[in-house]
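Each field is listed here:
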Amino acid sequence: MNFRILNYFLTVAHEKNITKAAEVLHITQPTLSRQLMQLEEDLGTKLFDRSQHKFALTPSGQFLVQRAQEILDMVEKTTLDIQDQEQNLSGSIAFGAGEYYATQTLAQLIGAFQRQYPAVTFDLFTATADTLLEKMEKGLIDIAILQAPVDTTNYDYIHLQKKEIWGILMRKDAPLATRKAIKACELCGLPVILPVRLQVRSEIFNWLSGDIAKMHFVGNCNLLANTAVLVEQNNYYAITIRPPLMNENRFVFRPLQPALSGDILLVWRRDRQQSHTLQKFIDFAKCFLSIE
C-alpha cells in the first residue's frame, strides 16, 4: 500500500464510479481496476461490493476511507512541516478549539503571530476536548485550547488567565431570564440540557448537589451551536459555558450561583518533535500570554 494507491481508492469512493474516477485521476480504467484489486489483495479483504452492477463500499471499505483520509492529511501536513524548516518561516499550524469564550484569546494570538510571520497559515478544527485530544494523539492537530479537567500527562501547556464561566443559556422570554444569576434549586423540574463530557458533567453534578434528584435532564450536547437551536425551539435550559457569540435578541446567559468556572489550557504534545514553525509559535504564545 502506498500513498498514490490510497488517493486512487479515495477518489473512487468519492466518485462512486470507477470510470469517472479514472477520468479525474487521468489514468485508464483497466489500470485503476488493477490497482484497486491489488489493494484488496494486499489487505486481504474486499473494499467494494461489485455485485449486480453495484459499486458500493463494504464495511472494510468504509473504515479504510476514514483511515486513508487521515493518513493522507498527515502526509500533507508532514510535507508542509518539513518545508517550513527553510530560512523564511512558513508552513501551516493545525489548531483545535472548543466553542469557548477564550477562543477570542486564541484569535488574537494567531493574528499577532501572522502579522510577524505572514507566510504561516493555519487550520482550525472545532470539537470537544476529548475529540481534540484524540486528534492530537494521531498528530492531526498541533496545538489546542482545551477546557479542564483534561489528562495532561503527555502534554505541555500554558494556563490562560481568563476562566470559562458556567451558566444557563435560555430564551430571552424564559421565566428565569429576569434573574441575575441562577441557583440549582431554580432549575428543579425544568427541561435541562447537560454537556456531553463526563468529566465536566461530574463537576456540574457536584454543583447541583442535593438538588440533583429533582432535576429533569432531557439530553446532552457537545457544541453550543446545536444546543442553542434546541434551547430556542423547545424552551430548554442549557448548562453551558459562556457563549463566545450570542444573539442577544433571542437568548440570555446567566451565571450560576454559587459561581462555577473552569480553567482553559493551551496544550501541545510533549513527546513529539515539533516543527520549527510550531516551536516558534509556542515560544511566541508564552511571551504573548504572559503580558496579556
Notes: The chain has a mean pLDDT of 90. The chain has nine helices and 13 strands. The two ends are 49 Å apart (CA to CA). Residues 99 and 223 are 7 Å apart (CA to CA).
